[in-house]
Amino acid sequence: MSTTKAPKLETIRALLAKAEDPRTPESEAELARKRAFEMMAKYGVEQAMLNDANPANDAPTDRQIVLDNPWAMERVRLVNRIALALGCRLIHLGRDGSGPARRVHVFGYASDLQRVELLYTSLLLQMNSGLAAQSIPPGQGARAWRRSWLLGFINRVGDRIEEAERGAREEASGETSATGRSAALVLADRKAVVSRNYQQAYPRSRKGGITTITGNGYGAGWIAGSRADIGGKRIGRTSAGSIAA
């Protein structure tokens, strides 16, 4: 991922750091989370519009990423929800070698991959710490309950990211770029380019199957996802630039 620092992204990082600091009162933490989430979504639209006349500044790219254990498949699902909401496409390539880690291939514009990185890192930390704090109800299978909690968390934060992205697009509906193109057209063209690059690389890709949930922790995970701040520094081990999981 790019290491370029943008002032707005640094502001988002600062807000998230405040929200995640246990010394911050919950009311202030929630305001910081909300602001960081809104700024992240708006940043994506702003970058798309700003770079419409300067495409070299924000070119489509791709990257392969290794997601380690614990819960490697659930990490795949988390980054999948984030990437799709932010206009990227990913494919799950399966195990990375003979170990439990999983490899994914991400396609998107550079600024959007940077946003994916920020959100994934923050949410992974929250997901792991949230799960570690859970007390499994009596009579529940530990692994099944924890997995269902993770799926509830992932689905809820995925919905929240999608809602924020949709709101940012609607807010920019009347704007035009330096080339005179509307925000809707700019974003649609970016989506088409990403999809074309993905299809060219994986013409035989297909959607994954239905996820089966056997534990009873989904609701608790969903509630935790509602409280999570959306908004990091690395995804995992990386190699060379939609998750069907």
TrEMBL record:
Residues of the DUF7168 domain: 76-184
Record-linked InterPro entries: DUF2786 (IPR024498), DUF7168 (IPR055592)
Lineage: Bacteria, Bacillati, Actinomycetota, Actinomycetes, Kitasatosporales
Domain DUF2786: 9-47
Stretches that traverse the bilayer: none
Domain of life (superkingdom): Bacteria
Protein name as it appears in the record: DUF2786 domain-containing protein
